[in-house]
Queue: 2 jobs
Job 1
Amino acid sequence: MKQVIYEEIVKAKKGNQKLLAVLIDPDKMEVDHIPEFFKKVHASIITHVFVGGSTDVKKKMETIVKTIKQHTYLPVLIFPGSHEQITETADGILFLSLLSGRNPKYLIEQQVQSVEKLINTSLEIIPTGYILIDGGVKTAVQRVSETEPISQDTIEVILHTALAGQFSGKQLIYLEAGSGAKKAVKSEIIQEVSSKLQIPLIVGGGIRSKKQLNEIYEAGANLVVIGTAFEENEDFFLELSV
Ligand code: 1GP
């Protein structure tokens, strides 16, 4: 299968072009608000749209993704909390394995359960090593996955986890401090991982200002993910205008 979205991410890494994804939680987005929301997204430096959450209580994923696709030309990737969130209406899926945890359910079981939906899919599947890092609060990922995050003080463990992901064939590594984290992933960690990793690096969780975003880019992240800061204040898009 052709990997159009992934190839673009690799190209951006090679050209040192920085990418930014807005994360939309289907539980927190109203369908009627999507057209207006995307006008702001398109006026900003956002390059990708991620949709998903640890839960999809209201089962809105499909409707939300379908509506987003009608209002954007940006690539839309599912960032699923479980196999139930998979919908064909997106362009691709981050096929996640929670490498920081030791819960087989999120290392392989969810993935096996998602095959029924993915076996004949046209979605671009991007194998992603997902690493949960302590962001100073107990996050939804930690609660739902019943796993412990890795401490920000154990850089070597984080680095080895990321490289184990790369050696296992993951195409992306995602360092995640968790949605609404108090402390984003430290620059020191991003520097260490990005300098040793050959595949693109995604960083997300707790990023709330342009200054922080630039520091994270500076440290070596190729793609940054922001959700909460936009949910709380859509004017933040204006600060990140093109
Ligand atoms: C969460 O990394 C993302 O999965 C984004 O986190 O909501 O804190 O921006 P925030």
Job 2
Amino acid sequence: MTAFTYRKRVLHAEHVPLPAIAEAVGTPTYVYSSAALRSHFRAVTESFGEHPHLVCYSVKANSTLAVLRLLAEEGSGFDIVSGGELARVKAAGGAPNKTVFAGVGKTAEEMAAALAAGVLFFNVESPEELELLDAVGRAQGRRAPFAIRVNPNVDARTHRYIATGLKTSKFGVPFEEAVGLYSRARKMKGLEAVGLDCHIGSQITLTSPFKAALTKVGGLYQELKAQGHGLRYLDVGGGLGITYTEEKPPSTAEYARTILAAVGATGATLVFEPGRSVVGNAGVLLTRVLFRKKTPARQFVVVDAGMNDLMRPALYDAHHGLQPLVQRRGKAVDVDVVGPVCESTDVLARQRPLVLPRQGELYAFMSAGAYGMSMASTYNSRPRPAEVMVDGSAWRVVRERERVEDLWRGESP
Ligand code: LLP
């Protein structure tokens, strides 16, 4: 769904003109569309129809309480990777018993808190982690429900920084070792095997990697069931890509068909961990032009959002569309849109054709809802942006702009 459209040359989020938000709240500010969030979430869950499934939104993509609350109200579960994310889910009113806990480096304290909270299961990524989880389970006098995350050794054909299913990756347990691990776990009193898990990467724009990985994982699930393990859940991870520029990712319906063809017959309750496909195109980052600067080699446009606010271009060379909040006619020139941070990688849009922006004009970085605010930092002692949620013609600030005093909270001079 496209929630951000021009009306009379002014970019709107649903029915709200974005310049009104920028003037009231300042910039940089993230703005989310509730209608887009709901529609993207519903598209995933509805495309699996009657097939038993649970969508566990991947909190890392955007962990803002208002986003989590909206999705919890839609019936979403959550995929978490830290005690901090669990605390956020609880603070937003999310259900721990619809929450799965992944990650290669859980501490005993994080495991104990999640077990006490009653998470649905832990996705375990190594033999040593399995032993620690067993000890945590025994200490609480209960069996910790777990799935082993297997690494199917499949190339997700995405950016190498966000591919996780190759055998050189730190994630998951080698496919061949899974059977042995489940039989070892059977003898451990603090554990209960309830599922099998895999996740091969992010921003995947083809169905073939999902098909290849899940065909293998579905076969393993059947094998483990045949060996008498009482598995009920098959967690297929997240990773469905979105359109930033020219990408043509599969629709949720095509994605669902691929998954069901590969693992539908296992009888397992399917668990999904979508992040980007739910929030990515439901958010934008508003920014204001500070200066223009022409050098013999480049036309620069300096804006008030930097790599600390939106890290993806600097970290992954990622492309985010850039649109003026008020359209103006003119000849397009190639500009480098850069932030104020003292790093040469603080380029948010490189050689982008734009009608030459003017000082004070407002722009929106598009498709910024996923891995935008959740990866923001205070580098260069820049307070993190405000966040706004739009719903129809209404909008509200859901996170105040960080205050300068917040920057040294807990420090002693
Ligand atoms: N499940 C697991 C185990 C994951 O590691 C991830 C993402 C997801 C689910 C959600 O994947 P999604 O549906 O969002 O693709 N910061 C990078 C993306 C890192 C993805 C990390 N894991 C970026 O900005 O592109």
